[in-house]
Amino acid sequence: MINMMRKTRLCQEFMNTGQCRYGDNCTFAHGPHELREAPKLGSAPHQPFNAPKQLTYNNNANNNANQNNNQVGVRSLRVGAA
Question: What is the domain range of residue 23?
């Protein structure tokens, strides 16, 4: 990403003082002759979202879960009615 943006803006230090402590290693342009066009970010097509596959359980696990849910529901009704 940094390399894509390299030399797409002017170096403020160089423009203000005529010097830059980073020299050729500066990521900013040291004059209009070094300026490059910035890439258009976000123009790539979006990848479709792949939802995870639904987990499947054996019948015993489903029956146990349903029994536990029913018991919790009955308890909460008794507490609420009291």
Answer: 1-39
Q: From CA 8, how far away is CA 16, in angstroms rounded? A: 18
Quick one: average pLDDT of 8-31? 96
CA nearest to 22, candidates 13, 34, 33: 13
Residue type, 52: P
Q: DSSP label at 33?
A: G
Contact 26, 14 (CB under 8 A): yes
What mean pLDDT is predicted for residues 33-60? 69
Residue 23 lies in a domain: yes
User: Using an 8 Å Cβ cutoff, are 20 and 14 in contact?
Assistant: yes
Residues of the chain with pLDDT > 70: what percent? 46
Question: Tens of pLDDT along 55-78?
Answer: 555 555 555 555 555 555 444 455
Q: How far is residue 55's CA from residue 61's CA, in Å, rounded to a whole number?
A: 12
